[in-house]
Amino acid sequence: MLKILSERPLPDIPWQERPADCAGPLWRFSGNPVLERNPIACAPRIYNSAVVPFEGSFIGVFRADHRDFMPHLHLGRSRDGFHWQIDPGTIDFRNAAGDPVPENYSYDPRVVLIEDTYYISWCTDFHGPTIGLASTKDFCSFTRLENAFLPFNRNGVLFPRRVNGSYLLLSRPSDQGHTPFGDIFLSQSPDLCHWGRHRHVMAADGGWWEDSKIGAGPAPIETELGWLLLYHGVANTCNGLVYSVGGAILDRDDPSRVLWRCNEYLLTPETIYETVGLVPNVLFPCAALCDSESGRLALYYGAADTVTALAFGRVDEIVEYIRSHAR
Length: 327
Ligand code: BMA
What we know:
Elements: E1 27-28, E2 45-54, E3 57-65, E4 71-78, E5 85-86, E6 93-94, E7 106-114, E8 117-125, E9 129-136, E10 142-144, E11 153-158, E12 167-173, E13 184-189, E14 196-202, E15 213-216, E16 221-223, E17 226-237, E18 240-250, E19 258-261, H1 272-275, E20 283-290, E21 296-303, E22 307-314, H2 315-324
Parallel strand pairs: 6-10
Antiparallel strand pairs: 1-22, 2-3, 3-4, 4-5, 7-8, 8-9, 9-10, 11-12, 12-13, 13-14, 15-17, 16-17, 17-18, 18-19, 20-21, 21-22
């Protein structure tokens, strides 16, 4: 089996075996969605959210759209990764002095463990959308860090370790609205505060399924062959944008180098909860749990900007699929 370097054993990963009729590298949980409409009183929709293993169970940072449509971040806990208890209040971010840091809106969070600290990255409002960062060690207190970038930017995704001494952050420079373009870039930092040495990683120049924009999904997973990057690839159709899940492998020592990029999507909107909702035909992956021992992977994705769903796969099969369908 392919060695998975960035992950730890996770025998209790949420899991279901591949159904006999599934040809692709990812398959859906038969009990989807894991978070239905109206999961908590203040938020009719929770989706595009991040989950990590924590102290023997699972914890998540959830995008919850409130009844005024404004998205905010809520914490959630689960013993099995399928059933979730979501806090009714939003996460209380504090600055270094301990004062609350109010957010106008917060959406599409990712969470990654780097050394002994969990980092949350999300789309925040700083005179327009850009990448907000915060840290926590215990998911009780949360320290707001400096925003990584100037506006406008989205889909900020940290790597789980420093590479050549630098923290690495993928992002997708954007406009203020429903951006019709977007490539994935890589930025480097010595301290998670000052970002530079920007590199271009991938353009939205793949096939028709991803010809409009692309954005990183979960934190990349390090394998002996390279970093597995799952991302959203967006098609522009006469019926609007369609968001699918794509995959690529980045060089371990220089992740701005793409080694293989799959010329087909890995998962595309098909089921009723993916094709019907507030924004139809959107799959938006934000988190992947992975068991380093077995290579099993559980992918959390937002479906149709309305519900949260799970898909499964095996890292070595996904990597092999990307390599054998590379352009
Ligand atoms: C993107 C983001 C995502 C959303 C997607 C589809 O620009 O706003 O949160 O899932 O559009 O609406």
